[in-house]
Design brief:
mainly alpha; globular
């Protein structure tokens, strides 16, 4: 009997080891498939336009290599650093107001248990599934009427579009916070605002970082909403890169690849420095919600 159990355990271990090895190989190949387009952009950013068209998959060597020429040309044509400043301002301010206001909203909705606020919670959840294309024309008209067609107005619009997912995640996490902690703070003399900032918000940090990462990547890379709101001369990074496309389908591919590299490097660094919080925050916010 003992020998049979041992053989069975050995077979299960072999099956588990084989399954683990196959999963590792599969996800390694999948990771390479996702990384390949980024590698292709980096490679072609150092090639001349002719070689990008003729040999896009070759490494930039010999006469194909142009050094930093594409970067200088792209910066000159696009006004990249001005666009970088606008994108940075919009992203930082939008993420800040989304994290602050939606976390406060989620805390209030969760703690005030009335039918109205329950309905309001589901309105936020419903907003997550409404496609942007359904509202973009009416939104752009309303934004023009309310004089929101500026980088400051764009921050308010991002708050509106990012609130659904953020409130959903924050509500899930607030439900896991014991109410006795807040009651103890109020007994000690804290007002509701002090209780939120000194007790609740520090405990929301994992979900707050997750919300910040997800929204920062979306806002930094977004092209459609800024192009509907902002004038071309005050565009964000995706807008000025798109301007490298000339008439009759002509595109300065070298400058475009170089500007894409400059655009994606900051958000990659930001993501890699914060990505450990994503799974933790999503699990805490979504599963418990």
């Amino acid at each position: 009997m003992g020998r049979k159990d041992k053989n069975t355990d050995d077979q299960q271990m072999e099956v588990s080891r084989f399954t683990g090895m196959m999963m590792t190989i599969f996800f390694s190949v999948l990771s390479l498939a996702f990384l390949f387009p980024i590698l292709l952009v980096f490679m072609n950013a150092f090639k001349s336009k002719l070689y990008i068209s003729d040999a896009p998959f070759r490494f930039p060597m010999a006469e194909a290599y142009v050094g930093l020429g594409n970067y200088f040309e792209g910066v000159r044509k696009t006004g990249f650093f001005m666009a970088f400043g606008r994108s940075l301002f919009i992203t930082v301010c939008s993420v800040a107001v989304i994290v602050l206001f939606t976390s406060m909203t989620a805390w209030y909705i969760t703690r005030v248990k009335t039918k109205f606020y329950s309905i309001l919670y589901y309105v936020f959840v419903f907003a997550m599934i409404v496609p942007f294309q359904m509202v973009m024309f009416t939104m752009s008209k309303t934004a023009n009427d309310l004089y929101l067609n500026s980088i400051y107005g764009l921050v308010l619009l991002y708050l509106g579009f990012g609130a659904g997912q953020a409130v959903f995640l924050f509500c899930g996490f607030v439900k896991a916070i014991p109410l006795e902690i807040e009651e103890a703070a109020m007994i000690d003399g804290c007002s509701p605002v002090q209780t939120y900032f000194h007790v609740v918000f520090p405990m929301l940090r994992p979900t707050a970082v997750t919300v910040a990462i997800l929204n920062a990547m979306w806002i930094w890379n977004d092209y459609l909403l800024p192009s509907l709101i902002l004038p071309q001369e005050k565009g964000t990074i995706p807008m000025v890169i798109q301007n490298l496309k000339g008439g009759y389908g002509s595109i300065d591919m070298g400058a475009m690849m170089a500007m894409l590299v400059l655009a994606i490097v900051p958000i990659i660094i930001f993501y890699l420095s914060c990505q450990k919080y994503i799974i933790k925050g999503v699990a805490a916010g979504a599963v418990k919600g």
